[in-house]
């Protein structure tokens, strides 16, 4: 029986690539997704669009993303809601309007 021939170790493809400094590319700006997530106007428009498209799960997901960006623990203290109420409202995604209003009102306080 003959010896099994194996191929040579592959070279890394990035070894031949050129590094580009993205800070020096004209017209390119740094993205700040957190800034977009905590913008209440954009979040409100996204929630409204979900509701217009009969997508309550999407609306609750947008609210959860918004509140995640605002830090839920800090928000819970400001809303004065019990921890269990706050987390079950977002986890089960079926809060009452009153609970949702308290959470959203607390997110606008500074």
Describe this structure in words.
This protein is an all-alpha fold and 110 residues long. Helices cover 56% and strands 0% of the residues. Helix 4 crosses helix 6. It is elongated, with a radius of gyration of 24 Å.
The largest sheet, given as strand count, sense and whether it forms a barrel, is:
none
Give the DSSP E fraction (strand runs of 2 or more residues): under 5%
Task: Give the CA-based shape.
Answer: elongated
- Terminus-to-terminus distance: 79 Å
| Range of helix content | 55-70%
The quaternary organization reads as single chain
Q: Please, what is the average pLDDT?
A: 78
- Helical stretch tally: 6
What gyration radius follows from the Cα positions, in whole Å?
24 Å
Low-confidence spans: pLDDT under 50, at least 5 residues? Answer: none
Order of helices and strands: HHHHHH
Structural class: mainly alpha
Strand count: 0
Compact description:
With 110 residues, the chain is mainly alpha-helical. 56% of the residues lie in helices and 0% in strands.
Supply database-style keywords.
mainly alpha, elongated, 6 helices, 110 residues
Question: What is the element layout, followed by pairings?
Answer:
Elements: H1 33-37, H2 40-52, H3 56-70, H4 72-79, H5 83-91, H6 97-108
Helix pairs in contact: 2-3, 4-6
């Amino acid at each position: 029986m003959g010896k099994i021939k194996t191929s040579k170790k592959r070279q890394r493809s990035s070894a031949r690539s050129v590094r580009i400094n993205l800070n020096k590319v004209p017209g390119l700006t740094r993205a700040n997704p957190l800034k977009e997530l905590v913008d209440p106007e954009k979040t409100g428009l996204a929630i409204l669009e979900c509701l217009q498209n009969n997508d309550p799960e999407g609306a609750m997901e947008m609210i959860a993303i918004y509140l995640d960006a605002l830090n839920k623990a800090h928000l819970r203290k400001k809303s004065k809601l019990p921890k269990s109420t706050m987390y079950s409202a977002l986890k089960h995604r079926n809060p009452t309007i009153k609970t949702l209003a308290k959470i959203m009102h607390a997110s606008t306080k500074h």
